[in-house]
């Protein structure tokens, strides 16, 4: 099988740039429209938008662990990029390629905030279930992880990931 070529790697990078741009633009809009203001209620007692600066993760857990999140993101994106580079460039692997691109984009969207601001800008709140306030990058991560699980459980076989196994001259 042919490994991902420069065109495929360029698609990965452009996908990340585009998705991160969308994430950052929504955060800029949220700051402009919501910071220091009352929540904008879209659906009463269900969905509202309000601005929150989060130094942790969901529900403020691990608040102040900025360095940990930065290092973890670099490691995760590094692993994803390695897999993308090694991945065969086939139609069969396209869903996996897309999911990894979206996952890396979500991780990097929040990484940009943590690196430049020291916190993540969150602004979407599902009041109905008291879900943690989140942002577009969080949506990328959540949706891609769910899709990743579905692909692994129902679409791909173990042999589809043989490209990740070390190959050497000694065959046993």
Notes on the protein architecture:
The protein has 172 residues and is mostly helical. It has one domain (6-156). Helices cover 55% and strands 11% of the residues. It is built from four helices and three strands. It has helices spanning 6-34, 66-86, 94-117, 136-155; strands at 40-43, 47-54, 120-126. Strands 1-2-3 form a three-stranded antiparallel beta sheet. Strand 1 (40-43) and strand 2 form a beta hairpin. Helix 1 (6-34) packs across helix 3, helix 2 (66-86) packs antiparallel against helix 3 and helix 3 runs antiparallel to helix 4. The protein is elongated. The relative contact order is 0.18. The model has no long low-confidence stretch (mean pLDDT 90).
When the domains are counted, the total is 1
Order of helices and strands: HEEHHEH
Q: Could you give the order of strands across the largest sheet?
A: 1-2-3
Can you count the beta strands? 3
How many H/I helical runs?
4
Distance between the termini: 22 Å
């Amino acid at each position: 099988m042919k490994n991902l070529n420069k065109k495929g790697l360029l698609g990965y990078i452009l996908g990340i740039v585009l998705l991160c741009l969308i994430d950052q633009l929504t955060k800029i809009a949220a700051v402009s429209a919501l910071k220091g203001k009352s929540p904008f209620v879209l659906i009463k007692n269900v969905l509202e938008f309000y601005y929150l600066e989060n130094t942790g993760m969901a529900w403020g857990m691990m608040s102040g662990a900025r360095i940990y999140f930065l290092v973890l993101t670099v490691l995760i994106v590094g692993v994803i990029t390695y897999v993308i580079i090694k991945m065969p460039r086939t139609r069969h692997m396209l869903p996996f390629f897309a999911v990894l691109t979206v996952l890396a984009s979500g991780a990097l969207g929040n990484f940009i905030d943590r690196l430049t601001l020291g916190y993540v800008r969150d602004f979407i709140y599902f009041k109905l279930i008291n879900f943690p306030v989140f942002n577009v990058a969080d949506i990328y991560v959540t949706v891609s992880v769910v899709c990743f699980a579905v692909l692994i459980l129902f679409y791909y076989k173990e042999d589809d990931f043989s490209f990740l196994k070390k190959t050497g001259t000694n065959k046993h």
